[in-house]
Amino acid sequence: MSQDSEKSQESEKINYGKVDPKLLEILACPLTKTPLRYDEAAGELISDKAGLAFPIRDGIPIMLVEEARKIDQ
Amino acid sequence: MTKTVPPDNPAIIFDRAALRKNRDRASKNFADHNFLVQEVAARLHDKIQDITRDFQHIVDLGCHEGEMARLLKDKFVISQDLSREFLKRASGARVQADEEQLPYRPQSLDLVISNLSLHWVNDLPGCLAQIMQALKPDGLFLGALLGGETLSELRRVMMEAEINIRGGASPRISPFMDVRSGGSLLQRAGFALPVVDTDRITVTYENAFKLMQELKGMGEGNILNNRSRGLTSRRLMMECAKIYHEKFSDARGRITTTFDIIYLMGWSPHQSQQQPLKPGQGKVNLSEMFGGKN
């Protein structure tokens, strides 16, 4: 947990930006094609099914599997 | 659902990570080298204008600097590219994604366009299947790809130069799609009313160096997986330029280069589309039609 909070403090400089709501309605996980959960605070789009969190930078979702963070389930 | 390997398990011909780097690099000076992309964007735009349909949700696959979104400015266009640097120069809704793994919900799009990017996809049938999946019923796919005889001059010249200098040739120019395979690709992916047509654009350059500079500037550098990774020697380049000039120069001494643009167009099936009649439903007797008297 403490590691996690340190990380989020570190990344405060990164501008996540807001994702266009119209875009969110269309976006899906590139692997499972299922809808994503938008974690605005973390600047991530989460695919629960694939266990991946896709980062957002300057309002641009990065839907590349190689850039996604693996989530422990 | 897990990722399944397509039955025909395509070989990995293209190094997509290298493509991403090439495109990132190309973004710095793209305005000097985007002639072909701009030209084909305008032609794609014309084709879209010819279709009397109000497309609401549009995605441009491999958008470069967002040329299509700019042309379709009154529409909601999602510009998608593998390159972050290209996307930074585009505007509107943007997504960094790979054409080989599309991030869209099933049946969410009215129109999928692609301007000169799909020729770098390893598994084009798989990509088309994903496009089909993302399209709403009666949605349209319209893609322009480099294919056919594209860069055939350079391919010949490079091979000859390399054989002259090194006694063997390594792959330097991407294999391109054949015009004839376009239709069957669309059909295999399940597209209705498939149409394939081509444009040949012949461009002249001062010399082979200028052509290669242009290709690099477009982000179209060699990404073949089994490419020769060593530096291309000056000697080889000089030999190339010499042979190119001897074989393919016009009256003004400029070298000529062929770009074949293949347009693939197909609709996701819908019952409102024209259907072939079932056999045995013909209403016209052919022998009567041709005036035969039995």
Number of helical segments with 4 or more residues of chain B: 10
Order of helices and strands of chain A: HHEEEEE
Low-confidence stretches of chain B: 1-8
SS strand fraction of chain A = 15-25%
The value of Rg of chain A in angstroms is 12 Å
Shape of chain A: globular
Please provide the ordered H/E string of secondary-structure elements of chain B.
HHEHEHEEHEHHEHHEH
Strand content of chain B: 15-25%
CATH homologous superfamily heading of chain B: Vaccinia Virus protein VP39
Report the mean per-residue pLDDT of chain A as an integer: 86
* Distance separating the two termini of chain B: 61 Å
Supply the helix-strand structural class of chain B.
alpha/beta
Low-pLDDT segments of chain A: 1-11
Main interface pair? A-B, 25 and 25 residues
Structural class of chain A: alpha+beta
CATH architecture tag of chain B = 3-Layer(aba) Sandwich
Give the CATH class of chain B: Alpha Beta
Strand order of the largest sheet of chain B: 3-2-1-4-5-7-6
Q: How many structural domains of chain B?
A: 1
Describe what this molecule looks like in 3D.
The complex is a heterodimer of chains A (73) and B (294). By secondary structure, chain A is α+β, with helices and mostly antiparallel strands. Chain A is 21% helix and 23% strand. In chain A, strands 1, 2, 3, 4 and 5 form a five-stranded antiparallel beta sheet that branches. Chain A is globular, with a radius of gyration of 12 Å. Chain B has helices at residues 16-26, 35-49, 67-71, 84-88, 124-134, 152-166, 179-188, 208-217, 234-247, 286-289; strands at 57-61, 76-81, 93-96, 109-115, 135-147, 192-205, 255-267. Chain B contains ten helices and seven strands. Chain B has a single domain, classed as Vaccinia Virus protein VP39 (Rossmann fold, 3-Layer(aba) Sandwich), CATH 3.40.50. The N and C termini of chain B lie far apart (61 Å). In chain B, α6 (152-166) packs across α9. Mean pLDDT of chain B is 90; it is low at 1-8. In chain B, α5 links the parallel β4 (109-115) and β5. In chain B, 34% of the residues lie in helices and 21% in strands. The interface between A and B is medium-sized, with 25 and 25 residues.
